[in-house]
Design goal:
By secondary structure, the chain is of the alpha/beta class. The chain folds into two domains: 83 residues, Arc Repressor Mutant, subunit A (Orthogonal Bundle); 176 residues, Vaccinia Virus protein VP39 (Rossmann fold), CATH 3.40.50. It is built from 13 helices and ten strands. Strands 6-5-4-7-8-10-9 form a seven-stranded mixed beta sheet. Strands 1-3-2 form a three-stranded antiparallel beta sheet. Helix 1 packs across helix 4, helix 1 crosses helix 5 and helix 8 crosses helix 10. It binds S-adenosylmethionine (SAM). S-adenosylmethionine binds next to helix 8 and strand 5. Its EC number is 2.1.-.-. InterPro entries: Methyltransf_25, SAM-dependent_MTases_sf, WH-like_DNA-bd_sf. It comes from Streptomyces chrestomyceticus.
């Protein structure tokens, strides 16, 4: 017979439960990101269930790691597990859609958040303190665009006439591939500062046989005059990078120079996430807290919606229309047209 067991009562307090909840949610967050990598969303989209040992063998996965990932997913009800059988859980659809946002956070910005304490010290903000995985960011954003953003983007294109299109901060290059596919007479050029993003883009161009119609340049979108490829652009787009144009005086100067240096430019679809000044931290939707925190750590100012609206006229642009996305939240397409000088 075992001896008497004593224990403390800390484990029953509300605060303790909150801390356990937060800890376990963090593991589930990583599991959502991993689930995309190992094909769980894909397999359960096409079938009602999979068998853990069979799936591990088929995909050459380490079975205990797969089992642990699946268990962590059950924490957020992404899947249900009965022995070896895994089926869709109540939140499967939601996480299948938002997986790109999760991978943006975990794989894209994981190395920055890992050093959140260090970079909060002024002394920790030297050299290459901004560490992120640009390849992961571009792949994550490609998914976010496809699931949440492309429909409104293509809606905004209705009625616009152009034969040369450009995308600033083009990431995976997917928007340009789609523009080229949509109209075989359109030529496209994209620019991105990150080598990893350009590599993802070049691969997509090769896969789609689009190298002759879409050109990607690794460079700084704030210095377009250095690239003759932009001289005859008629449609400019930029998704999820406009905040890199700020602070305000830089943004006004840049928008002004884009208008004056690209004489054929007719339309600019500028979509970006602005700062949320409406919700309290406990009411924030998915993404906002991660987005705003990551950019604060990187020292990048995020303008509010009103601040964005305040720059266009001053820079010689007219905002003809806005489309507000629900996801990513606080994200707007500003449809701009140059005001003639
Ligand atoms: C959040 S990602 C969005 C990528 C893409 N626009 C999309 O919607 O999928 C932002 C991209 O802007 C790029 N970027 C940031 N600053 C830039 C700059 N000054 N010039 C060119 N690209 C830049 C980043 O490397 C990154 O690929």
């Amino acid at each position: 017979m075992s001896g008497a067991i004593t224990g403390d009562t800390t484990g029953n307090t509300t605060d303790y439960k909150k801390s356990a909840e937060l800890f376990n949610s963090t593991i589930a967050t990583w599991a959502v990101s991993a689930a995309w990598d190992i094909g769980i969303f894909e397999v359960l989209d096409g079938a009602d269930a999979f068998d853990i040992p069979a799936y591990a063998a088929q995909k050459k996965l380490h079975e205990p790691s797969l089992r642990a990932t699946v268990r962590a997913l059950t924490y957020a009800e992404v899947v249900e597990v009965d022995g070896d059988r895994v089926t869709r859980g109540a939140t499967f659809g939601e996480f299948s859609r938002s997986k790109g946002l999760f991978q943006w956070l975990t794989k894209g910005y994981g190395s920055l958040f890992q050093r959140m304490g260090e970079v909060t010290y002024t002394a920790g903000r030297t050299g290459d303190f901004i560490r992120r995985d640009s390849t992961a960011v571009s792949i994550a954003c490609r998914d976010v665009n496809e699931v949440f953003m492309d429909e409104a983007f293509f809606g905004a294109l209705d009625g616009l006439e152009f034969s040369v299109a450009a995308d600033l901060g083009c990431g995976s290059g997917e928007r340009l591939v789609q523009l080229a596919k949509r109209d075989p007479s359109v030529r496209c050029v994209g620019i991105d500062i990150a080598k990893g993003a350009i590599e993802v883009g070049e691969k997509a161009l090769a896969e789609n046989g689009m190298q002759h119609r879409v050109k990607l340049i690794q460079g700084d979108a704030r210095k377009l005059s250095q690239y003759p490829e932009f001289a005859d652009v008629e449609l400019m787009t930029s998704y999820l990078m406009g905040h890199d144009f700020w602070p305000r005086e830089d943004c006004v100067a840049l928008l002004r120079s884009i208008r004056t240096e690209l004489p054929n430019l007719k339309y600019f679809l500028l979509a970006d996430t602005h700062r949320d000044i409406t919700n309290s931290v406990t009411e924030l939707p998915v993404f906002t807290l991660g987005f705003e925190t990551a950019h604060a750590l990187m020292g990048q100012y995020i303008p509010t919606h009103a601040e964005w609206e305040s720059v266009f006229e001053e820079a010689g642009w007219k905002c003809t229309k806005q489309h507000v996305y629900s996801t990513p939240s606080s994200t707007v397409i500003f449809q701009l047209e140059p005001v003639s000088a």
